[in-house]
Design goal:
By secondary structure, the protein is an alpha/beta fold. The chain has 2 helices and 8 strands, in the order βαββββαβββ. The strands form 2 sheets. It has a 4-stranded mixed beta sheet with strand order 1-4-3-2, with helices on one face. Strands 5-8-7-6 form a 4-stranded mixed beta sheet, with helices on one face. A hairpin with a 2-residue loop joins β2 and β3. The longest helix is centred in the N-terminal third of the chain and has 12 residues. The mean pLDDT is 90. This is VOC family protein. InterPro entries: Glyas_Bleomycin-R_OHBP_Dase, Glyas_Fos-R_dOase_dom, VOC_core. It comes from Streptomyces rugosispiralis.
Length: 128
């Protein structure tokens, strides 16, 4: 198998709002959109697709579910700078900058539809 691209598809109530959030704060571009659908792309990242909850392209048992329990994680070069940039842009930071015991530094923002976006950097490993 040769995979040519990867995308994450999330079901939300307001597709244009989530799409605009990724465009404004994360540098994505809208590749295509229609009523209840938006496909976003960004160099170096998986694509993100937003589908309106209830749309009939979703399997019947999933149409009314909202994206939940999913975190889109972006590994970045300068986590501190991204934290300050997003804070200054007014993006809702819903988990402040922190470091986990396993060496992951992270913070989270949440879009207007409740989609969690996590920015991550790895702390330098401890010397042995």
């Amino acid at each position: 198998m040769h995979i040519t691209s990867t995308a994450i598809s999330l079901t939300v109530d307001d597709v244009p709002t989530s799409a605009a959030f990724l465009v404004k704060h994360f540098g994505f571009q809208e590749a295509t959109a229609a009523d209840g659908f938006a496909s976003l792309v960004r160099e170096g990242a998986a694509g993100v697709i937003f589908l309106r909850r209830g749309i009939d392209v979703l399997p019947e048992g999933f149409r009314d579910q909202h994206a939940a329990g999913v975190i889109i994680a972006f590994t970045v070069d300068d986590l501190d700078a991204e934290y300050e940039r997003l804070r200054s842009e007014g993006a809702p930071i819903t988990m402040p900058l922190r470091e986990e015991p396993w060496g992951e530094r992270l913070f989270q923002v949440t879009d207007p539809n409740g989609v969690i976006l996590q920015l991550v950097a790895w702390a330098a490993p401890a010397p042995r």
